Structures are given as C-alpha cells and as structure tokens.
Amino acid sequence: MAGDDFNAAYGGSGSEDPRTQRSYGRMSPMAESPQDRAAWLREELQRHERLYYQDAKPEITDREFDRLMAELAAIEDEHPELRTADSPTQRVGGEPTEGFEQVEHQPPMLSLENTYDHDELQEWVERLKRLVPDTGIAFVCELKVDGVSLSLLYEDAVLTQAATRGNGRVGDLVTANARTIRTLPLRLPAPAPARLLVRAETYMRRSAFAALNQQRAAAGQELYANPRNTTAGTVRQLDSRDVARRRLDLACYEWVQPAGGGDGNEERRSHGDCLAALADLGLPVDGSWRRCASLEEVVAFCDEWQEKRGELDFETDGVVVKVDDPELRDRLGATAKAPRWAVAFKFEAEQAETVVRAINAQVGRTGAVTPVAELEPVPVAGTTVKRATLHNYEDLARKDVRVGDAVVIEKGGDIIPKVVSVFEERRGAESQPFAPPTECPVCGETLYQPEEEALLRCVNAACPAVVREAIRHFASRNAMDIEGMGDWLVGELVGGGLVGDPANLYGLTVEQLADLRKTNDARLGEKAAARTIASLQESKERSLSRLIYALGIRFVGDSTAALLARRFGSIEALAAASAEELEEVEDIGSRIAESVRAFFDSERNQDLLRRLEDAGLQFEEEQTEAEAADGPLEGKTFVLTGTLSGMTRNEAAARITALGGKVTGSVSARTDFLVAGEKAGSKLRKAEQLGVEVLDEAGFADLLSGGR
C-alpha cells in the first residue's frame, strides 16, 4: 500500500508529514508502509504494557492504548503476513483449539519436598552440610505462590513456547493461553540470551478472583471456590479468549541454566543474580525474595511472611528455600522426586476470629444431617468464609459451640473451614447449648441415629435435599463429569420437578434448560444449555468404575468402585454378587459388602439402574480383573494422595488397574507404592514411617510407561 493510501486507511492525513505525527507519547516514524507502521506499533504497545503492568507508570490512557491496539489489529487483519508471535494483539486470544499438544520438559520439572516446622527445616540444612561438608551454604528464600507451574521458552527474545508442568516430564502446550497474561512479555529487550528457559507460577490475584466471582454472582452463575483451582481450570481452557478475560498473573522463579555451563560464553549465575537478571529483562519476579546467609536468616524470613501473608494480593502457602550457588546445586543433585538443593517450608493453616450467627442443618446425599455454623463473614486464606463445618452433633456438643459465640476458624489449603476453638469466657448470661434437631429440616421426616454412628440421618429417599446432593454427586468430576451441572442448575431442576433422580437427567432437552431463569431473571440460554446436553451425551461413555462411584453407594469411594468394576466386570454381575462374594475382594469388608447388597436389593435402585441402562450408559467394564491379571503391575498395591496435575486421581487409578495393579484408600505395610501429588498430607508421612516407596508424578509416569 502506498504511503498516502496507508495514511488514509489507518487514520493519518495525506497532507501531514508522518515525521511530525505523534502517537500518544513518542514520535511516530515515517509511515511509508504497513510493515513499518505495524513494527512501530508493536514496539510502542509493548513499551506501554511494561510501563503499565510492571513499572506502574502509565503514560497514556486506557482509551489511547486501545486505539493503538485497534490500529495494529486492523493492519494485521488486512495483512496477515505481518502478524507476529510477539504481537500485542495475541493477548486477546484466538479461536478455540481442539485439544492440547504434549511437550517434554528438559530438564524435568521436579516437585519439592515439604517441611512444616523449624526443626524439619534445620534437619534439611544439616543434611545438605553432610553432603557438602567442605563449604558454606548461602540460600535464597522466595514466597511460594499458590498457582500453576509453567515452563516458558524464549528463542531470539520471542516467547515461543509455554507448557504446564503436567507430570513433571510431559506437560500441555498452552502458549496461546500464556500470551494472554498481560505481565508476561512476548518479546524481551536486548540484550536477551538467544535461548532462555524460565520456570514460573501463573496465578490469579485475590482482587481479580473477587471481581470474577462478583461478575458470576450478578449473572446468577455458580461461584468459584478459590483462586488456585480457578487458575488451574483457566490455564487449560481451549478458548484463549476466555483465558484473556480471567486476568491471570505470573511470577517467574527460576532461570534454568544448563548444568556445568552457562548460556553462550557467560559464567553461570547464582540464583539471586538470575532473579535480578530476569527482572531486568522485564519478566515478572516477586520482589520479596531475599538472600540468606544462615539458617537463622531463613527462619526469620519464613516467620516474617507467615505473619504478613494476609497483606498480599495473592495466595501463598509457604516459602521456597533454595541453595544460591549453581555449582553446589550440581553437587547436591536430585532424587527421583525432588532437587536436594531446594525445599518448601509450609505455613500453618490460616486462622481467623469471627462470630457464630446461626447453626443450621445440612442434608447430604446419603441422608446424613450435618451441623454447619453460619458465620460473620471473615477473610481467611484468600477467600471470604461465611460457613464452617461442625462435623456432627456429638462433635458440636463436645466443643460446646453456641449461637453468638466468638470462635476461631481454620482453613488450610482447600480444606473446608472448621471451628477450632470457642471463647467461652465471652459468652453472655443468655447463652444456651445447641439442641440437635429431631426432624429433617427439608422434608420433616423424623431423624434417627444408627448404632455406633455419630451422625443423624434422614431416611426419606425422596427428600429434595437428598435428591439434590445425589445428583450433584452423580454429575461431579470424578463421577460422570457433566459440564454445567452446578449447585444452581441442580437446584432448579429438582425444585422445578424436572429431575427426581440421575436417570431423569438423560431425558432433558436444550429447550427445557434454556428457559430456566437465573437469580437475575436472565435465561440460561441455548448455548449454555446445548453444552450441558452435549456433556450429558458424552457422559454415557464413562467407564463402569465411574458409574459405580456415581451411584453414591454408601462407603463406596472411587478406589472401591474401581476394585468392584475390575472384579465383577458389569453391573449385572455386581448386582448378583452375594455379601460373601463381595467380601472376597481384597480391602472390602463386611460393612462395604452389606452396603452394596442393600443398594442393589432396593427396588427403587433397581428401577433407577434399568432406566440408566435404557439411556445408554456403560454397564460393562472394558477390562476385567482376569484380563488384567498378566499386567506389569500385577500384585502391586498403590495408594494415591495429594493433587496430580497431569491427570485426576480417578484416571490414575484406572491406569493402575488396567495394568493389573490395585488401588486402596489407606497406607499399610502391604502397600507397595504411594503416589504423592501436590499437597500430600498424612498418608505421605505414614508411608515414610513404614518405608513404603513414594513416587512423585514423574516417577509414576515412568512406572506406567514401563520405564522401571
């Protein structure tokens, strides 16, 4: 396009000398071609992004920035060959993808060992000193941002690849999604190395999370539980435009330097110098990191931030302590699970003081009636807590929690908030002990308490609360995984009489769902309704083990469901099994066997199963126990704990059983392997005490692939 034509098309005046034009803060160059103008706009937009997101010193208004962005987008639309990978227009996201490609991490993204107190931290330091007794050790302490790990690759200063951690060895390629993170530079300034591999944590700020939930509440949508889980779901969205709207952030924590040598002819840098260099290149680095020359300084840093973490606009569950010297890191090496030169110090669960406004009863899918404290809202661990579990009425009586009490609540990680203690000395004279209910708060059925149980139960199978919770469980992720079937929609379906049990779900139509009204009186809409109906159709292909779990048989969790599916191979065979035959399955005792038999003996449940089979659900397992008997994991017993980033625990259990192994729920001397994901807890400590081999995700992936 000629110069005059270009100016006319993209906002300039043919009578003006382009050399005299200003574009919101800096002189615009001669705009003789679309290529020149696009290159200048990219550079200018990138500069304004750095000023706004990193330096907090914007030079132009949002409207002026948007005008520049719109001009660049118009040029790229007319001249697609000018669109580059580092163009700021890529931050708005593109067309949805059909799935994620896999990428191998080199080197692997290992997990971290955890410490929980000063003594364990001291033991780690002493272990390092025994491994390298001939030298002093300096450390770098960083806040452990609670988000999702990414590996970022820059080549010739341009971001070319972003991948999730996955199982540590293989992750999902999410480059399009990463480009939407405004604090992540798409091009690095000179002098950037020819190849730069960076490890980072993407996360959602508490303020952004609160704003997102406000938007969802206004639209009558189900609220998200916490920033970390929302981030994990956002990173793996197939439509990067949705990711762009979520406003994720980023914190870089590692410049991956090749062992034994630097990039090019440079000497290897200490970790602290690497963090400073990354910041100089414009990459986001949390500025709270600190060099520590001794264990005492490390402890002081950990204690300081345990007290101050509530001041942050992001969630952190601890401090990462790393050896600063890269040569010492090489000497210390790594185990199959984690580097020896780094450790995580986990903060204690966050607590807060509040007041009990009411004590209500919550009815679960098995009819269990649980007391729940309604609280004066209080911020804890990044979310506003309004309710806390009181477990059961015996526990409530033991703690003597009363309406009006000042209490301490606790919330660690993703754990449901609970009441820890009561300030009894603050009670008024009118305070009275709480009396348990005698009738179901939903249907009015008389409650009863089974022998040797602390729970009260509603025995009315048609109780709306029982039906609602049963359907929520049926549709949950580890069960049938039905998209869109959240609290609001399930409540509307049950309350409106459209659904009385899980089989009714498969008779729903797009029209029925689309006409449902949200709290703001807006219709659910045909698009959302169509997605849910499509997900219902997809759920018909879920495995037998997931269906058994989805049925909500008392005491049958996902691991037990997998054992039953593998042993019996079909619903028909399982329904025909006697209690004695059920007890022959290892790890299934009389309590589970009696519960399974009671479920299949119920005429109501038999009718439900007939209608589910008519709807087309999978009633047979693809691989039975006999077919898996010669698998490479035959005779091996596994326990799963923590959060696995590369797959769900249900998927991991299915992989194990398909190879002949067995998954149980508790660690014992008969356990061969404990697979430990992030936030592994007491099962990990018990496994270490018993000498059970612990596999991280990378080691587990190796085992599944026959690598050991």
Summarize this structure as a short list of keywords or feature phrases.
disordered N terminus; alpha+beta; single chain; 26 helices; 5-stranded mixed β-sheet
Write a concise synopsis of the structure shown:
The protein is of the alpha+beta class and 708 residues long.
Q: Rg to the nearest angstrom?
A: 29 Å
Q: Tell me the distance between the termini.
A: 62 Å
Tally of alpha and pi helices: 26
Question: Tell me, what's the shape?
Answer: globular
**Contiguous runs where pLDDT drops below 50 for at least 5 residues:** 1-25
Structural class: alpha+beta
Number of strands: 23
Determine the fraction of residues in helical runs and give it as a percent range. Answer: 25-40%
- Report the β-strand fraction as a percent range: 15-25%
The residue-averaged pLDDT reads 84
Largest sheet: 6 strands, antiparallel
Written description of the protein model:
This protein is an alpha+beta fold. Helix content is 36%, strand content 18%. It is built from 26 helices and 23 strands. Helix 2 packs antiparallel against helix 3, helix 13 crosses helix 14 (487-495) and helix 17 crosses helix 18 (558-568). The N and C termini lie far apart (62 Å).
List the helices and strands and how they pair.
Layout: H1 3-9, E1 22-23, E2 26-27, H2 34-54, H3 62-78, E3 102-104, E4 114-115, H4 118-131, E5 139-145, E6 148-155, E7 158-164, E8 170-172, H5 175-178, E9 195-203, H6 206-218, H7 227-235, H8 240-246, E10 249-255, H9 271-280, E11 290-292, H10 295-308, E12 316-323, H11 326-332, E13 342-346, E14 350-363, E15 368-380, E16 383-389, H12 393-399, E17 406-411, E18 418-422, E19 456-457, H13 464-475, H14 487-495, H15 510-514, H16 526-539, H17 544-550, H18 558-568, H19 571-576, H20 579-583, H21 590-601, H22 603-615, H23 625-628, E20 637-641, H24 649-658, E21 662-664, E22 673-676, H25 682-690, E23 693-695, H26 697-704
Parallel strand pairs: 4-13, 20-21, 20-22, 22-23
Antiparallel strand pairs: 1-2, 3-8, 5-11, 5-12, 6-7, 6-9, 9-10, 12-13, 14-15, 14-17, 15-16, 15-19, 17-18
